[in-house]
Design brief:
By secondary structure, the chain is mostly helical. It has one domain. About 75% of the residues lie in helices and about 0% in strands. It is elongated, with a radius of gyration of 21 Å. The relative contact order is 0.14.
Length: about 130
């Protein structure tokens, strides 16, 4: 009988704790914030593009940039769950990064042999704009 009472008490406390968290905006406690994740992705784009100088390297960069594009989508999906200050921080970081990303997209689009990355770069610019 005591065991049953203890189990019921634990379940009741877990339910109360779960209900108390409903509706709260939060960032998961992973050690990284959404802004950290955005910076990691932007750094990855920069590193990837720094090695692109011919059609073969452009082809090799496509899967990496496509993966970053998918991660931008995931960040955009998380926006509504972030605190107001976290959203503002992400927007600020996206705004700071936008000119560099646009410059890279222009460079790629205007370069013979590596312009096959153009559509992917334009997609990245559009997805970063969603984070503003």
């Amino acid at each position: 009988m005591n065991t049953r009472r203890v189990v019921m008490t634990i379940l009741a406390l877990a339910l109360i704790a779960g209900l108390a968290a409903c509706g709260k905006k939060y960032e998961p406690e992973t050690g990284y914030t959404a802004t950290d994740n955005l910076q990691i992705l932007l750094d990855r784009v920069t590193r990837t593009l720094s090695g692109v100088n011919n059609p073969a390297s452009a082809e090799a960069a496509l899967p990496v940039l496509a993966e970053v594009s998918e991660e931008f989508d995931r960040l955009a999906e998380r926006l509504p769950n972030l605190t107001e200050s976290a959203r503002a921080e992400m927007s600020s970081q996206a705004a700071r990064a936008m000119p560099g990303l646009k410059d890279n997209a222009r460079r790629i689009n205007n370069s013979d042999g590596i312009d096959l990355l153009g559509p992917t770069m334009n997609e990245l610019v559009n997805k970063l704009a969603r984070l503003l």
